[in-house]
Amino acid sequence: MAGRYFDEWVVGDRIVHEIRRTVTETDNLLFTTLSHNPQPLHLDADYAAGTEFGRIVVNGTFTFALTVGLSVGDTTLGTLVANLGYDKVTMPKPVFIGDTLRVETEVTELRRSNSRPDAGIVTFRHLTLNQRDEIVCQCLRTAMLKVKPS
For position 29, what pLDDT does the model report? Predict the structure, then answer.
């Protein structure tokens, strides 16, 4: 199991996740159409060419989902009870087809669960960076994790 139990985390823990992902046209097309998002900025190359970006911009919710996905293996895989929420999701720079994304995570808060003695709450700050080291997505993820079995 790759994820850590609640009591194995310390505020300030940092992880530079090894898995990176180059975003493809297919990623963007499938995610955008599967989520029924008709925004031409994500689907129409001619339309996108006339915008300030000059090309298709990858769907931001794909970028957000990839942010969480790239972090799971090192954080919550096998130890998660539930993700409780996502806060302060921002996308300071656009993502384009062909960008390679990576994620860094920091633990910002820990607390025992009031309702579950076998679990605790961890808040992760995820940063997603492109190949130019520009932050393209950031968020806080609050997760309930199992306590390490005795």
Answer: 96
